[in-house]
Amino acid sequence: MTRTILIGGCLVLAACLPLDARQLPDYLPAAAEEQLESSETAVEDDSRWQDLQAYTRHKIPLNTADAAALQSLGLLTPLQVRHLLDYRRLLGAFVSIYELQAVPGFDPALVGRLQPYVTVGNDLEPHYTLRDYTRKGEHALLLRYGRQLESARGYRPRDTLPPHYAGTPDRLLLRYRYHFPRYASWGVTMEKDAGEQFFKGAQKQGFDFYSAHLFIRNYRHIKALALGDFTVNMGQGLTNWQAFAFGKSPLTGQIRREGEVLRPYSSAGEFYFFRGVGITLQQRYWQLTGFVSRRSLDGNTGNTDSLQAEAAISSLVPGGYHRSIAEAARRGALQQLTAGGNLAYDNGNWHIGLNVIQHRFSAPLEKGDAPYDQFSPAGRQLFNASLDYAGTWKNVHCFGEAAVDGNGHLAMVHGLVASVAPAADVALLYRHYSRAYQSMYSNAFGNNQHPVNESGCYAAVALRFTPQLKWEAYADLFRFPWLKYRSDAPSTTGRELLMSLTYTPGKLTEAFIRYRYKTGMENMAGTDSYIAPVVPVSRRSWRCQLSMSPGPQWKLRSRLELTDYHKETVHEQGWLCYQELQYRLPAYRLRLSGRLTWFSTGGTGSSVYAMESNMLYSYSVMQLYGEGWQYNINLKWNINRRLAFWARWSRVAYRDVTSIGSGWEEVAGSRKSSVQLQVQQLF
Predict the structure, then answer these.
(1) Where would you tag: which of 197, 433, 469, 631 has the fewest CB atoms within 10 A of its CB?
(2) pTM for this one?
(3) b/e sequence 500-512, b meaning 16+ C-beta within 10 Å
(4) Cα(18)–Cα(14) distance, integer angstroms
(5) Burial class (CB in 10 A: 0-12, 13-18, 19+), 205
(6) At the fourth CATH level, which superfamily is domain 61-119?
(7) CA distance 69 to 534
(8) Burial grade of 209 (CB within 10 A; 0-12, 13-18, 19 or more)
(9) In whole angstroms, what is the distance from residue 15 CA to residue 8 CA?
């Protein structure tokens, strides 16, 4: 009874109070939460966020922007881009951004998401010189500090032994970047993770990670020129895709991978990028891209190769941590040489591309001993080639890619997005990934982190009943032909369903209710069999969320989420309720915000997920289980137009526990808190 009253109180508070809509676009938190829930891994890449933030200061002119510029926002489907360009060509220049509501496929919610990044006017097509590239952009210097206040087990001395972690719990990020969106970017990123040393020991050079890039776009026949660190994104992700990409998410139509092949890299993640040189040349409808990279990767050393008499690499370690002696020993264990290219024809309506990439390693990769690792990559090299296509005919956009690896194993994905009525869109996708298909940095649509060992059919629909009311849903049927992690039986099947009803009565208010159901097969728990029998496992979740701004200084976001988990005789239930409130003090250039979260779950199977984002370019997805409270307080102070300061304090407190976490990250007690400080100077 008490629990019901408190949950009800949170919802009443949600209806009466008020969040910041400009810190992070709404579609990114939803996509990040879905990614972590599906794969339990998250790519540390804030490049998309950096690009969007740059567009708030260098807005895209709607009356002169081409398809590539509009697609670079990542907010529009290919059909929406096509409809916008057709509308502009037939009816002339836009006189107001709200005129976008007359474009087929656009609604007030979408126009609201676009508003911070686009502008209208009588702008002429820009023609910039190389000198303009160096003067019309903006310089930004960002410094971030963070620290967990409670000492984890790895930082405490062990009898007569020193602590397991050699460094302090302090986290540091220093980034300088010059950014002229769509034309030029260069900068340097430096990062020290918690537990790593600083100017001593294994990190005598100071920061543990350094990254630098120089990137030029759209200069004469040079579509893109990359020096230093960059990402490569080809086709639909079957051969290589290192940037942020949507999977299955509430944005049911965002199923196509799209964007330039080469992109600058300025994030702090230490794995998903290349280091070298790349160039894209364009001549009318033809584009030719080539790139070469050489970099070091962290890895665990396995058995010794009997023929080569050298240590093989049993696994790659993408985390980038070098806190202990063991982690420091993994650093640079493998040298990777990569070369590849792309040849594409794109006339605006139709696209076809040929993609090739090859990796060579300084030591052979070694398969794991687990049965599901039988078809994992092995040896000194990986090769992939693919053919991708995309085309638009009337109100139908189709796309796809077919790929092959060096051993002849196939992977393919084909899809279409169609506008079947002025207020109805559908999306269909089929994928088939061989159980033995091997790739390095692939990221295609599906349930797995890589496109391997999966076949499936996905269907989605979006209906706009009124300009304020929208219903979206998808269904996905999939099968895994071979064994996989936590599933020792081949040909296991699963299905997933999502339905969402969104109500947007005005620009400052949005409410939705969402239901999600997923079922599959997993190993039976507690069995002694070498090959465990599989049993059905299912998870259901319901989410209600309200975002509103009842006044110019107030913003609010409230969420209630319920989960239900079944596996054999195990039945877990969980719930989360949070209230987020923001208040602005314009006279003092201050923004204060905070979130109070109450959660309770029956175990890890019924975990709940929520994304936090209250400092520029800093975000995290919380996985909460057990019972307790999580709360944070945030402050942003715009000291002047070009200097801003952020501060953040957060804490999670659990009930009936004596420690939090495990291994060297274990914290004694029932509470864990952290502090973050950040300053950014624009010049």
Answers:
(1) 469
(2) 0.91
(3) bbbbbeeebebbb
(4) 7
(5) exposed
(6) AF1531-like domain (1.10.150.280)
(7) 48
(8) middle
(9) 11
pLDDT confidence tier of residue 613, bands split at 50, 70 and 90:
low
Angle subtended at Cα 388 by Cα 382 and Cα 390, rounded to the nearest 5 degrees: 160
Phi, psi of 52 (to 5 degrees): -65, -40
Q: Which amino acid, residue 665?
A: E
Residue 269 in tokens = 């993640």
> Looking at the chain, how many residues does it have?
683
Q: Could you give the CA distance from residue 543 to residue 33 in angstroms, rounded to a whole number?
A: 13
CA distance 425 to 59: 28
Q: What are the Cα distances from residue 358, in Å, to 233, 240, 411?
A: 14, 10, 17
Q: Which amino acid is at 340?
A: G
Domain borders along the chain are: 61-119, 208-445
- Contact between residue 49 and residue 74 where contact means Cβ atoms under 8 Å apart: no
pLDDT in tens, 365-400: 998 888 888 899 999 999 999 999 999 998 999 999
CA torsion angle 461 467 469 470 (round to 10):
20
Most confident of 86-95, 152-161, 332-341: 332-341
Q: Are 185 and 177 in contact (CB under 8 A)?
A: yes
In this structure, which long-range contacts are made by residues 120-127, counting pairs with CB atoms below 8 Å and at least 24 apart in sequence? Answer: 120/61, 120/62, 120/63, 120/93, 120/94, 120/95, 120/96, 121/61, 121/63, 122/63, 122/93, 123/61, 123/63, 123/64, 124/64, 125/64, 126/64
Residue 510 backbone phi and psi in degrees, to 5 = -145, 135
Biggest alpha carbon distance in the chain?
A: 79
The answer to whether the beta carbons of residues 269 and 43 sit under 8 Å apart is yes
Residue whose token pair is 């206040």: 149
Type of residue at 289 = T
DSSP three-state, residue 430 = strand
Amino acid at position 674, single letter? S
- How far apart (Å, rounded) are the C-alpha atoms in residues 128 and 131? 8
For residue 671, which phi and psi values (nearest 5 degrees)?
-130, 145
The first and second tokens of residue 619, run together, are 């975000």
Q: Which of 616, 612, 583 is nearest to 597 (CA)?
A: 612
Which H or E run contains 359?
Answer: strand 350-365
List the helix and strand counts (H, then E) for the chain. Answer: 8, 33
